[in-house]
Amino acid sequence: MRKAIALCAGLIVLALANYAIYSRERLLTGGRVILLQLAPVDPRSLMQGDYMALRFQAANDAFGTGNVRREQPDGYLILKLDEQGIGTFARLDGGTALGVNEVRMRYRIRNGRPKFATNAFFFQEGDARRYTAARYGEFRVAADGEAILTGLRDKDAHPLGESLRK
Predict the structure, then answer these.
(1) Which structural domain range is residue 117 located in?
(2) In the prediction, which pLDDT does 46 show?
(3) In this structure, what are the phi and psi dihedrals at residue 58, rounded to the nearest 5 degrees?
(4) pTM of the full structure
(5) For the chain, percent of residues with pLDDT exceeding 70
(6) What sections of the chain are H helices per DSSP?
(7) DSSP code of 117?
(8) CB of 128 closer than 8 Å to CB of 17
């Protein structure tokens, strides 16, 4: 009986893991490319390896640069896109229909700061110089507002390093 329970539990875990992988792959291949301007932040951590801590101007515009109130729930904000796909904060999502060139993007409040998909971009040791020119985060955003960070871009929106785009 114990073996059957362990086997069923293992199959459930594998099914959930595979579903998570499948949904991320779908987002990578079918999500809309959105660029968000980076806001300045300390770029490295010696304990975690080489990475760039990320903060986005759209989050600063929506919530300010200080800590967000603890009672602020996770939610969605609406970004207005320009012709290059660069998103700027338009408003917090109130359930209204999206306008022309607008997209809904999910945010989560973690440690008093809004976060879009992630708050860090890890790169291979020794590649830090390549990413110092980063000015935009490149996201793939699904119709439901879920997003995944796929790369960084320079001031002219050219990709830096390798991207997860397919």
Answers:
(1) 32-160
(2) 47
(3) -60, -40
(4) 0.76
(5) 90
(6) 2-30, 57-63, 128-131
(7) S
(8) no
Rounded Cα distance between 166 and 154, Å, is 19
pLDDT digits (tens, 9 = 90+) for 105-132: 999 988 888 888 888 887 777 777 777 8
Q: Residues 25-44: what's their mean pLDDT?
A: 74
- Provide the domain count of the chain: 2
Residue 44 near residue 160, CB atoms below 8 Å: no
Expressed in angstroms, the distance from the first to the final Cα of the chain is 45
109 and 122 in one domain? yes
The whole-angstrom separation of Cα 102 and Cα 123 is 31
Q: What are phi and psi of 101, to 5 degrees?
A: 60, 35
Q: How far apart are CA 148 and CA 15, in angstroms?
A: 21
